[in-house]
């Protein structure tokens, strides 16, 4: 296997009672890149996410993570290996503060790694420092004592990202990170994704084509469960088939 590939699928297929939602998908996600999955509603994007994180069993094909076959691995083990989906662990507790939420996420990771850690007061301080760093890094500095429920939608998503980052994932899967966001939040989350992608790989499903164009190194276009095209935004947006299939119009991809 190519050492550059962090995630690879070969012939990935999913059938729901006779309906083939994902068919023979070969996905190649290179380490350190931002890779977007796009396509019309029902193209199979979310199903691909659910398959690679093992939330859904495959009907056919293989999934390789860092060269290791994870086709039959449990979802929690996949997360432990470093591939984490944003909402997976980051259920945000609405009535806890930003700081408490991030601390809990950090504790989950640390208690798993070394439970004896908790015996030391000094380590608890270090945990606080790490939590404050994470909060700052997602742009929530100053909101540490605010309850999650009182945050705006965009800031709640940023908190979700912070709790996911607490796990220090190597590969982060983001499912429509811009969904429901206003202009200002989109700018902030775009900058955040770019920052967090500096030392990890990001695979995202996103409908906002400006964001996809702006952020992605590679884009895979799905249509009816199959890969229609793959390449940079410039490459796929020149493809007449993509323009036709994705938006039903040859002008649709210029943003
Ligand atoms: N659990 C399921 N049982 C039956 N059919 C399903 C199931 N999950 C998804 N599908 C079908 O599989 C197809 C692909 O769905 P999927 O949600 O992966 O598409 P998507 O590209 O993520 O769409 P969207 O952009 O609307 O979220 C759809 O036709 C959907 O109805």
Automatic annotation (TrEMBL):
Residues 7-249 form the ABC transporter domain. Pfam families: ABC_tran, BCA_ABC_TP_C. GO terms for molecular function: ATP binding. Keywords: ATP-binding, Nucleotide-binding, Transport. This is ABC transporter ATP-binding protein. The lineage of its organism: Bacteria, Pseudomonadati, Pseudomonadota, Alphaproteobacteria, Rhodospirillales.
């Amino acid at each position: 296997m190519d050492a550059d590939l962090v995630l690879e699928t070969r012939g990935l297929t999913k059938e729901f009672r006779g309906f083939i939602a994902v068919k023979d998908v070969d996905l190649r996600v290179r380490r350190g890149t931002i890779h977007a999955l796009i396509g019309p509603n029902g193209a199979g994007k979310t199903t691909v996410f659910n398959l690679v994180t093992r939330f859904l069993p495959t009907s056919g094909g293989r999934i390789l993570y860092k060269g290791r076959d994870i086709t039959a691995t449990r979802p929690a083990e996949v997360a432990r290996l470093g591939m984490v989906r944003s909402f997976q662990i980051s259920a945000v507790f609405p009535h806890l503060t930003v700081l408490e939420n991030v601390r809990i996420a950090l504790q989950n990771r640390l208690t798993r790694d070394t439970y004896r850690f908790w015996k030391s007061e000094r380590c608890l301080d270090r945990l606080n420092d790490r939590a404050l760093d994470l909060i700052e890094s997602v742009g929530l500095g100053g909101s540490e004592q605010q309850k999650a429920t009182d945050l705006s939608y965009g800031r709640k998503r940023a908190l979700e990202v912070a709790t996911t980052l607490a796990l220090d994932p190597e590969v982060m899967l983001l499912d429509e990170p811009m969904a429901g966001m206003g202009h200002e939040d989109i700018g902030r989350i775009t900058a955040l994704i770019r920052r967090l992608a500096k030392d990890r790989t990001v695979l995202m499903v996103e409908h906002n084509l400006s964001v996809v164009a702006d952020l992605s190194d590679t884009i895979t276009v799905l249509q009816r469960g199959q890969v229609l095209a793959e390449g940079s935004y410039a490459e796929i947006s020149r493809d007449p088939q993509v323009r036709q299939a994705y938006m039903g119009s040859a002008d649709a991809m210029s943003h």
